[in-house]
Amino acid sequence: MKKQDVIELFSILRENNPQPRTELNYTSNFELLIAVVLSAQATDVSVNKATDKLYRVANTPEAILELGEAGLKEHIKTIGLYNSKAKNVIKLCEDLLRLHDGEVPDKRKDLEALAG
Q1: Within a 10 A sphere around the Cβ of 50, how many other Cβ atoms?
Q2: Average per-residue pLDDT in the chain?
Q3: What is the mean pLDDT of residues 98-109?
Q4: How is the chain classified by DSSP, letter by letter?
Q5: pLDDT computed for residue 20 by the predictor
Q6: Is CB count within 10 Å lower at the N or C end of the chain?
Q7: Are 51 and 38 in contact (CB under 8 A)?
Q8: Helices 82-100 and 61-76, interaxial angle, to 10°?
């Protein structure tokens, strides 16, 4: 696609939907990050059902690590590929704490370096 075509496409999208929103439910950048990781190969509806229950007990990196991988799996087992997703979310939480003081980074390169 030519650069001008891309610019035109984004202009049309902006006109028709000036404030796009995800259908994933979240109240913090961390919750959104976890929901996005869980959404791979899953519907937003199924992710929202699982995260609604998960976020009531664990919505920070520390709290998810306290659940542990087995505890996290119990909350997300209705989502496809939950075994590998649980491993990735645990690693992601460890990395957030170790590399970013528990905060979701705002640089694309740092986000892409996280597990999941």
Answers
A1: 19
A2: 95
A3: 96
A4: --HHHHHHHHHHHHHH-SS---SS--SSHHHHHHHHHHHTTS-HHHHHHHHHHHHHH--SHHHHHHHHHHHHHHHHTTSTTHHHHHHHHHHHHHHHHHHHTTSPPSSHHHHHHS--
A5: 86
A6: N
A7: yes
A8: 180
Give the burial class of 98: count Cβ atoms within 10 A of its Cβ; 0-12 exposed, 13-18 middle, 19 or more buried. Answer: exposed
Q: What is the mean pLDDT of residues 11-36?
A: 94
Instruction: Quickly tell me which residue has 């997300």 as its tokens.
Output: 76
pTM of the model: 0.86
- Give me the residue label for tokens 């028709």: 16
Question: Closest Cα to residue 30, out of 114, 95, 102?
Answer: 102
The pLDDT tens digits for 36-90 are 999 999 999 999 999 999 999 999 999 999 999 999 999 999 999 999 999 999 9
